[in-house]
Amino acid sequence: MSDTQTAPAPAPRALPPLMQMTERAAARLKKLYEGANKGQLLRIGVNTRGCSGMSYDMSFVDTVSPGDERVTDHGVDVLIDRKATLFLIGTVMDYEVKDLESGFTFTNPNEKGRCGCGESFHV
């Protein structure tokens, strides 16, 4: 008879969030969800285009696709296109208001560079 015991399996390590939002981005999305985009969710993806090869794609959708990942931050939901998840891990979405423009911006730790105009990036 053996007195050896099996050690319990270690608890799985928590995964980093797929994406996060700043309070400004969440506040802007809440306003959009309550107004013109009521009943819709923002889906974020990545498309192949631009001089650096990839660009962020955002669209409001009425239904969740089977391949969508739902991210909730600051009480606000966004959808991530499953094909974009590897490119977006660790990304922070913000909302910036400047003198001549305003919009959502992304700080993506996976980016290796951006084109000069800022419209596209590469990983």
Describe this structure in words.
Belongs to the HesB/IscA family. This is Iron-sulfur cluster assembly accessory protein. It holds the Pfam family Fe-S_biosyn. Residues 19-119 form the Core domain. Strand 6 (91-97) and strand 7 (102-107) form a beta hairpin. The protein is mainly beta and 123 residues long. It has helices at 23-34, 85-88; strands at residues 19-21, 41-48, 54-61, 68-73, 76-81, 91-97, 102-107, 113-114, 121-122.
Summary of the model, kept short:
The protein is mainly β and 123 residues long. It has two helices and nine strands; from the N terminus they run E-H-E-E-E-E-H-E-E-E-E.
Features:
single chain, 123 residues, mainly beta, three-stranded mixed sheet, 2 helices, 39% strand, globular, Iron-sulfur cluster assembly accessory protein, FeS_cluster_insertion_CS, ATAP_core_dom, Fe-S_cluster_asmbl/transfer
